[in-house]
Structures are given as structure tokens and as C-alpha cells.
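Note to self: the last two entries modelled the partners one at a time, which told us nothing about the interface. This time every component goes in together.
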Amino acid sequence: MSREGSETRRRILDAAWELLEAPEGGEVRMSDIARAAGVSRQAVYLHFPTRAELLVAVTRHVDAVKGVDARLAASRAAGSGEARLDAFVAAWGGYIPEIHGVARALIALGRTDAAARAAWEGRLAAIREGCHAAVAALARDGRLAPGQSVEEATDLLSAILSVHNWEHLTRVCGWSQELYLRRIGALARQAMLAPPPG
Amino acid sequence: MSREGSETRRRILDAAWELLEAPEGGEVRMSDIARAAGVSRQAVYLHFPTRAELLVAVTRHVDAVKGVDARLAASRAAGSGEARLDAFVAAWGGYIPEIHGVARALIALGRTDAAARAAWEGRLAAIREGCHAAVAALARDGRLAPGQSVEEATDLLSAILSVHNWEHLTRVCGWSQELYLRRIGALARQAMLAPPPG
DNA sequence: CCGCTTATTTGACACCGTGTAAATTGTCAC
DNA sequence: GTGACAATTTACACGGTGTCAAATAAGCGG
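The predicted structure of the combined assembly is written out below.
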């Protein structure tokens, strides 16, 4: 698999990324990626044994370049649970459009490939953990909407913030990113937040 | 394509249905369907020229057997917009688990096949129309939550009621169908319903 | 310049799933 | 029987993934 920091390897990752994130990135073949990277198809297999491992590497590459960790961690700095909720929704909701193409491909491949499925589930777990942190902070503040456990609220919030919902609202319904953030932020507050005491 | 009411045709449809709705119905091939129907692979192609047309026929078959139209239309009988909303959420939310496997396959195929995509979009349009009817009734009653147009509310409700959210909450998070209906019903009310006047 | 190593290319091929085609058997109606 | 039809068997074309082996560059120490 050659060494980690190979120039060709990086070119392949960037080419795959660009193709997947392109407007019509529905059917990206290994040969497409090779051609876009200016490399032979076999060179791709030289660096990534399977299509699944390539896609997983692309998501890691994108995360590293975009700095997801730092952006999502920022929501942890907020003081109140309410502020945490808003910050996390804004951070993740704002991140989705930047990784949508790659995420889409990974989800699709996950239906048949175990490695891709595991990679996407890891992603989901990270999101869920962010949701959990916000919900737990709300509960600590006594501001979690009644009638639901912390677990249930976490599940529901992670569903609200799913990539599929973003895709449906912005792609199918034609919402702008700004409208999406506003309405989903409001929905999350309605579902999670109890009215202020007193 | 043989005549409509052929016995073999029905057997193929039932076999495909059963396979798609099975717990591990992720990878259903034409040969699987043929074997399950007790028929040669070519006999399947004799009745359904492509995999996409077979899947589309299966969804129609399921709809006919389950009587989806009647069940969704029942929500129209409700008097108030509020009752309409509850009835529609219960009707569609209760229908999802019965068609989940077929819907899943149709969505997946739609990523590459135009016919399958069109069929699923038709389905989406029907759901959206049900959402629109409920939201319009709410607006007529002056009970639509402020700060959103009828169109936006319809979009949001159709997103909340998406198959993906059902799949995430019940399959990934392990919610029971009963819990799903209760929490999603509550979420829909929070998002759509203004507090009663006076 | 030689020989060694490593990255890449080229071309061929196996596998699998979809879809097509042709020849064959069985079964009814008339 | 003859004709029409349903279904079977066998074979093959195509596209996409993944494998393999041999040929070609490019780097570097001697």
C-alpha cells in the first residue's frame, strides 16, 4: 500500500473527493477516480485494496482537511445546555453540505460492504455522542423537555440532524442552507427544550 | 409480458415481496427471487423486463394488497386540522414498517435507475400531498404554528415522516413501533401546531 | 555506468449480477 | 394433430470490481 504520505495517494484521495462532491456524483467508478487523478486504474488498487477502503480513507482525509473534530468540539465550550444545543446544531448542520457527497457514497456502499458500514456507523456514533452531550447538559440545567429520557431525546435529536433530512429538505424541497439551519434549529429547540422555569 | 393475472406472475411478486421484507433483505438478486418463486430466472424476465420494473410492480402489488390508499384517505375524514394531523401521522407512520423492505430496495435502486427513481418520487409526492392536506387544514383553522409558510411546514412534516427517520429510530436506535409513533406524533405536533387560541 | 529497490503502467483475466437470445419441452384450445 | 403460449435450458454479451504477471521508469549507492 506504499507509504502513508505518498504524493500519488494524496492525488487519488483528492480526485475521489472532488468527484464524489460534484453535483452529479452518483456513480463514481474506480476508473473514473483513476482518470481524474491522472493515474492508472491499477495504481489506485496499489494504494487502496478495495473501493470500500478508498471511500473510508476519503472520509478520513476530508475530516482531517476540514477539521471536523475541532468544529464539533467547539460546541462543548458553550456554557448552558441551551447554548450547547444551538452550537452543536449549527456546527453539524453547517458541516453536512461539505461532506454530503462522500457521506452519500459511504452510506450507499454500506448496504453491501461491511467495512463501509462500520465506517459510517462510527460517524453516526460520533454525532450521537455530540447530541448526547448537548442533551445531558440540558438535563443538568433542568431544561430538557419533559416526557422523555436522555437516551430517547438523544436518539430523536440524532434523527433530526440526519444527513437524509438535510438531503430531503435542501435537495428535494429546495431549501437554502440558511433556511435549513433556521428551521432545523427551531425544530431541535421545540423537541429538546423545556420552557424556562418561572 | 404475459397476461396481467398470471399465476406465475403473482408467485414472483409474492416471492420478491417476502425476500425484500425479510430481516436480512439487503441483497436480493433476480436469481434469489426466481428460486424463491420456484421458477427459472428467465421466467422472471419473461414477466418483468428489468429488475426495476419488477420492484415497481412489487410496490404496486403491496399497495393493492395492503390497501394503502384507503388507509391514508381515512385521515381526510377527520374534522379539525389537528385531528387530521394526528390521523395522518398515525396512518403513514403505521404503514411504514409494512413496506419498509420494498421501499428500501426501491430507494437504493433509484440511485442508478430512472424508472425506480420515478416510482419512489411518485410515492413521496403522495405522502407530501397528505402532509399538505393536514397542514392546509391546520392553517384554515388558524392553528398552524407561526413563523412558517404552508409550503415550508409541509416540507418539514414530510421530512419528519420520512422512511429514513423511521429506519433510524426503530432499527438503529431500537425504538419500538409504539414508541416511534408516540414520539414522532409529539414532534409533528410541536412543529406544526400553534397553541389553542384564548 | 551498474545493479538494486520501489512506484507505476500495461494488458490480460476471473467473478458476479443484469439482461438478451435461441432452441426445446409441455400444455392447452380448437 | 396443429398452433399458440408458458416455461425451461443453455449460452452469451456487458459492465464493474478485483487479481496477476511482466514490462517500464525513476531513484540512489556503489
